[in-house]
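Q: What would this complex look like in 3D?
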Amino acid sequence: MNLIELKDITKVYSEGKIPTPALKGISLKIEKGEFLAIMGPSGSGKSTLLHILGMLDTPSSGSYFYKGKEVSRLNPNELAKIRNQEIGFVFQAFYLLPRLTVLENVKLPLLYSKVPYHKWDGLAQNAISKVGLAHRKNYLAVHLSGGEKQRTAIARALVQDPDLILADEPTGNLDSISGKKIMEIFQRLNQEGKTIVLVTHEREIAKLAHRVIFIKDGKLKE
Amino acid sequence: MKVYYLLKTSLLSLAAHKFRSFLTILGILIGISSIVLISALGKGAQELIVQELSGLGAETLIVRPGKEPKGPSDFAQVLFSNSLKERELKAIRREGAVTGLVLAEPEVIVTGSVAYKGETFRPLIVGFSAEAMIDILKMKLSEGKPFGEKEAKERKRVAVIGWRVKKELFGNLSAVGKVIKINGKNFKVVGVLEPRGRVIFFDVDDLVLVPYTSAQAYLGATKHFQSIIVKVSSPNLVNEAKEDIEKILRNLHNIKDPEEDDFHVRTQKGLVQQVENIISYFTVFLVLVVAISLVVGGIGVMNIMLVSVTERTKEIGLRKALGAKQSDILKQFLLEAVILTTLGGILGIITGLVLALLGSWLLSKVLGIVWTFVFPLKAMLLSVIISSLVGIVFGIYPAIQASQKDPIEALRHE
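A: Here is my prediction, written as structure tokens for the whole assembly.
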């Protein structure tokens, strides 16, 4: 069964005087357990596509089915709940709260969940050990290396055991050794059954995925 | 606790900018501390005046000429009205006329000075029964004996003098039996009052008492009285006595409508109430003025919260990506504003209390006023509530701004 199905998705930004199309009719199916890389030059619309997949942004037209449900029919609170429980985000710039420890950062999604507080610690510890950061769990985020920051961000994405992980240039701010480690983690998570969609412009990174799609000027090229 | 976690993650930016946060709440701090200070001092002043008035005794009534003054313009007629004379005094004194009557004594005031062998002093010269005075104020004489109705009937040139007057004129020598000059007229000192200090707005120690008839005959006092002091046998009879006196005087003056009264009767209870009212109105007025400063403080908080929202746009985007609803973000920023202002309120209460204690100390130790520090509990509770409300009122707009940030724009924000 398809986890995700996009039908003729377009996105037009109309902030300026001239509307600028970012996506021009994207149709895409992503199966459960897939490891998909989206490649394209900057400005191609790949980040916009990822944001729409992550329900952070809404398409201008077309339909998006997530687990068979049409996303445009969901209200903002239902979307927030899916983002919280079923999707894990990993960003290029990590977006950790610098004055919190690794453990506290990883707990942040739980604040918006219904998970009872006494379970938070166990869930966060578990996610941290999956990315091999148990020895750093009480470090402040600001004191971590780039690779450790990104591993913390992945642990945060994993804390509620989501089905889907969306990563936007996760190795973009890292040196090649740290980047390799991060990709190893993604591969392992995929083997454990997680669906992973990764945006990158690096061919080396994309090669590690099962399937690579190219996007240019808002259109897909397989 | 979940709340603890929420506070920890959300108050980081306030904690990171400690000095800025402090400046932000300074306005609230100053406003609240002023409210606490004013309330404490107002309560203290009230206490002080009530204590003074209590010296009068609960069974005493004062009949004064003129309608009860309702405003400053009414005071003139109290000073110049001549509605209380010998005839009114007789009517009040008539047996059975006033319930529980113990005594009714008129008072006339004389301006001038007293002299003894080259020493002069400007005391408070009053034509009033010395017996009634020591009875009403529950005083004793330190030497000699008082004078009363008999001396008044005979227009005796006798005087009872206050303790300071005696000191000024006679030093450590005995005063009883000596002849002093009051406005150039000879009067014999028959008694000296024990030291007492201030009672009901005048200083007993500065007093020179002579029979009221003698004051009228020799010292140029007016034929009408400045007041008639009435004492009844029990505080419970005061209200009845008041009604009796009003009835007697209205009959005597042919007054049908109480609005037309040319006299008024005061009781200690009434006076205390009036003073309490005046002071509490005044306090409320001052507090309202100070409340304006809280609006200014609130605007400061709003300003900084708006800055904080802009600075933390990325954080807001992240939280939304991780599943925060609009209402979660709204609550978080509102909570931060409320914590900020409530903290300002609590610091303000502490500051206000310290200032009030300092003020009480200055008033009592340096100025020698018998001042009691009153803990303004009501004002303190109110301050906590007000400061939280300021947080809600001035935090809601920035919080709405924060909650409506588009997560995409927020995450892209550089």
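A: To summarize the key features: The two ends of chain A are 21 Å apart (CA to CA). Chain A touches chain B through 27 residues (CB under 8 Å).
Q: Very helpful, thank you.
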